[in-house]
Inverse folding.
C-alpha cells in the first residue's frame, strides 16, 4: 500500500479555506457597515426586491418634493386671498351713502385710499414665489398685470384707465350734458318731446313716465321698445284752462343708465318759483304752451344735473368694465368723437394698455360666449355681441336644418347673426344645427332635435303652432349654447396642476381676471380716478350726490351676495383649501407607505450585527481548525503516518 498526499486532496482544502476567508472578509464588512452587500451585484436573490423598493421610494421622494413646492405656493395664495378678502371688506365699508365724515373728510380721502389699495392689490397679483408668478394661470414667467401708474395713466402713447373713463363720460353726457337726450317744443304748442338721439349704447335711455295729474291736465305717450330696435321717445302735453295742472302735482320719468341701473326725475308743478329756484320745480303758466315751456326748461336743467351725478358715476363703472375686461371679453373703447359717438370699438395693444396679460379663455360661459338670443313671434335670432372680436367669443359659421318647415338664414356678407324661422311646427325627429367656431379654430355644433312632450338634453318641444315652437326652441338653444360656452371656457384651476400621488393631481391655477378679483380691481380703480371737491354749497351738493352714486355702485359691486359666485374670492379660497386637504392626505399616505418600505428595505439590505459577530466567531474557529489540519496534511509522510 502506498501512502502519499494524494489521499488527502490539498487543493480542495485550500479552496474551502479561500471561500471561508472570502466569507470572513464579507462578514467583517457587514459588521462595519451593517449592510448585506457593498454593491448591487452582491445582493443575489434579493436584488429584484431591493431595486423595486428603491424605485418606489424614489417616486415617493419625488412626490414629496412636489408637495413641498405646491405647499409653499398654496400657502402664499392662501395668505394673498385672505388679504384680498380684507381689502374687499375695507373697500366696501370705506364709502357709504350719506356718510361724508367730519368736514367731508371721507369724500377727500376715499379716492387716495382706493388708489393705495389698488396699488397693494396689483403688487400682490404681481408677486412671484421663487421666480414663478401665480396669478397668470399657466403663464408663470412674467407679471400678469402692469404697475398701477401704467394701468391708470397709460404708457408710451397707449391709453390707460383714466383716458377710457374720460371718453366714456363724454360719450354718455353728449355735447350738451343731457345724456344724449334731445327735448323739443314746437312754438305755440303745449307738447314737449323728449327723445334719444340715436340707437347706440351711450347716455340715458327712456324707460317709463307717470304723473299724479289727471289725464285731462297732463297727457303723455310712454316710450316703446320696437322691433327692429329704434331710438325711443315720449311726449308730454299740458292742457289749457280750466283743466291745467295744479300745484304739487308731479311728472316722473324713468331712465335706464349705461351700467344697467335705473334713475328717475320727478318734476313738481308750482304756482310761483322758489327763491333760489328749486331744481325740480316748474312754474304753471297762463296756458298749456307756457307751462310746457317752463317744464322743458326745468327738464333740460335737471337732465344736465343727472348727467353730472348719476350718469357720471354709471359711466365710470361702465368704463371700468370695458377697460378691465373679463375672460372671453375684449377691451372696449368709444369709437370716434366721444360726444357724438354711436358705437364702441375693440381696443388692442397698439393704442390701449391691456390690464391682464396672463392666461385667459377666449370664450367664457358668462354672456353665452359673447352671443345673444332673441325671439320675435316665429323667429329665433342668434347673434354675436357687438362689437365683434375675432379673438373673443364664438363666431357663428353655419346653420342647417333637415326640414322645409324651418327656414334658416345666415347672412354671408355679415355672418354675425343667424335666423331660425318656424314656418310650421316640424315633425318629431327633425333637427336644427348651428355651428360655432372658437377663436382658436375649434368648432362646436349645437344640434337641437324636435320632440313631442317634455324635451330632454339637446331637444326642443314641438308647440301647438310656429310661435310656441319658436319660444321652446329659444329656451333649448340657450341651454346648449350655455353648455358649449362652459365647455369652451374650462376651469381656471386646471391651468396649473401638480402630481402628488400616482392617481392624484392638485389643481391650483389662479387667473387675476376671475370675477372676485376683477370686481375688486374695477371698484378700486373707479373710485381712485374720481375727486369730490366741496369748495362752495353748489359744488359740495354736486360732489355729495356723485359720491353717493359712486358709493352705491361700489356697494353693489362688492356686495356679499356675490360670495357664492364662481370665481369669487370666497370660492377661490375654498377651492384652494381643497388643494391643501389633498396635499395633507397625500403626505400622510406617503409617510405611512415610506415607513413600510423602509422596514422592508432594511430587512432586505441590512444585517444584524450580533448575528454577524457570532458567525464571525464560528467561522474564525473553523478557519483555525482548517489551517491546522491543512498544515498537518501538507507535511504528511509514511513515517509520520506510521
Amino acid at each position: 500500500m502506498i501512502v502519499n498526499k494524494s489521499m488527502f486532496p490539498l487543493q480542495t482544502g485550500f479552496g474551502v479555506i479561500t471561500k471561508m476567508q472570502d466569507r470572513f472578509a464579507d462578514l467583517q464588512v457587514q459588521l462595519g457597515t451593517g449592510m448585506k452587500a457593498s454593491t448591487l451585484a452582491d445582493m443575489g436573490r434579493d436584488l429584484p426586491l431591493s431595486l423595486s423598493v428603491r424605485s418606489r421610494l424614489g417616486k415617493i421622494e419625488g412626490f414629496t418634493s412636489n408637495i413641498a413646492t405646491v405647499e409653499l405656493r398654496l400657502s402664499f395664495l392662501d395668505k394673498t386671498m385672505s388679504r384680498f378678502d380684507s381689502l374687499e371688506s375695507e373697500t366696501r365699508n370705506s364709502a357709504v351713502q350719506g356718510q361724508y365724515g367730519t368736514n367731508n373728510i371721507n369724500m377727500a380721502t376715499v379716492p387716495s385710499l382706493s388708489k393705495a389699495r389698488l396699488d397693494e392689490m396689483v403688487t400682490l397679483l404681481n408677486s412671484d414665489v421663487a421666480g414663478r408668478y401665480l396669478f397668470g394661470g399657466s403663464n408663470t414667467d412674467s407679471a400678469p398685470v402692469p404697475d398701477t401708474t401704467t394701468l391708470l395713466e397709460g404708457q408710451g402713447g397707449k391709453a390707460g384707465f383714466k383716458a377710457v373713463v374720460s371718453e366714456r363720460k363724454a360719450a354718455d353726457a353728449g355735447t350738451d350734458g343731457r345724456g344724449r337726450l334731445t327735448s323739443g317744443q314746437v312754438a305755440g304748442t303745449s307738447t314737449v318731446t323728449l327723445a334719444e338721439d340715436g340707437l347706440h349704447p351711450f347716455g340715458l335711455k327712456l324707460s317709463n313716465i307717470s304723473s299724479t295729474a289727471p289725464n285731462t291736465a297732463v297727457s303723455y305717450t310712454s316710450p316703446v321698445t320696437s322691433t327692429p330696435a329704434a331710438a325711443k321717445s315720449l311726449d308730454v302735453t299740458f292742457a289749457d284752462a280750466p283743466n291745467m295742472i295744479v300745484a304739487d302735482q308731479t311728472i316722473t320719468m324713468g331712465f335706464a343708465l349705461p351700467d344697467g341701473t335705473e334713475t328717475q326725475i320727478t318734476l313738481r308743478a308750482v304756482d310761483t318759483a322758489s327763491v333760489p329756484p328749486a331744481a325740480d320745480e316748474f312754474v304753471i303758466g297762463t296756458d298749456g304752451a307756457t307751462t310746457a315751456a317752463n317744464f322743458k326748461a326745468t327738464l333740460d336743467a335737471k337732465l344736465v344735473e343727472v348727467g353730472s351725478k348719476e350718469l357720471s358715476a354709471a359711466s365710470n363703472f361702465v368704463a371700468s368694465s370695458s377697460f378691465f375686461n373679463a375672460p372671453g371679453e375684449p377691451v372696449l373703447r368709444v369709437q370716434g368723437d366721444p360726444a357724438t359717438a354711436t358705437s364702441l370699438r375693440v381696443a388692442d395693444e397698439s393704442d390701449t394698455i391691456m390690464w391682464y396679460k396672463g392666461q385667459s379663455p377666449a370664450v367664457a360661459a358668462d354672456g353665452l360666449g359673447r352671443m345673444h338670443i332673441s325671439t320675435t313671434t316665429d323667429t329665433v335670432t342668434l347673434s354675436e355681441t357687438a362689437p365683434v372680436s375675432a379673438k373673443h367669443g364664438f363666431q357663428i359659421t353655419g346653420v342647417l336644418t333637415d326640414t322645409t318647415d324651418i327656414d334658416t338664414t345666415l347672412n354671408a356678407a355679415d355672418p354675425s347673426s343667424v335666423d331660425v324661422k318656424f314656418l310650421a311646427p316640424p315633425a318629431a325627429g327633425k333637427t336644427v344645427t348651428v355651428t360655432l367656431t372658437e377663436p382658436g379654430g375649434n368648432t362646436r355644433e349645437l344640434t337641437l332635435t324636435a320632440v313631442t312632450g317634455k324635451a330632454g338634453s339637446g331637444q326642443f318641444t314641438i308647440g301647438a303652432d310656429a310661435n310656441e315652437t319658436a319660444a321652446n326652441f329659444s329656451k333649448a338653444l340657450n341651454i346648449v349654447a350655455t353648455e358649449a360656452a362652459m365647455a369652451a371656457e374650462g376651469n381656471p384651476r386646471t391651468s396649473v396642476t401638480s402630481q402628488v400621488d400616482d392617481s392624484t393631481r392638485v389643481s391650483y391655477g389662479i387667473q387675476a381676471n376671475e370675477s372676485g378679483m376683477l370686481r375688486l380691481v374695477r371698484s378700486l380703480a373707479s373710485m381712485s380716478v374720481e375727486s369730490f371737491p366741496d369748495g362752495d354749497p353748489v359744488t359740495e351738493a354736486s360732489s355729495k350726490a356723485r359720491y353717493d352714486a359712486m358709493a352705491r355702485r361700489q356697494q353693489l359691486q362688492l356686495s356679499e351676495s356675490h360670495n357664492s359666485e364662481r370665481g369669487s374670492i370666497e370660492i377661490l379660497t375654498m377651492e384652494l383649501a381643497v388643494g391643501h386637504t389633498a396635499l395633507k392626505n397625500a403626505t400622510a399616505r406617503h409617510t405611512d407607505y415610506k415607513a413600510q418600505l423602509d422596514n422592508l428595505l432594511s430587512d432586505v439590505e441590512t444585517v444584524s450585527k450580533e448575528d454577524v459577530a457570532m458567525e464571525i466567531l464560528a467561522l474564525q474557529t473553523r478557519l483555525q481548525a482548517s489551517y491546522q489540519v491543512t498544515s498537518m496534511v501538507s507535511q504528511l509522510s509514511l513515517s509520520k503516518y506510521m
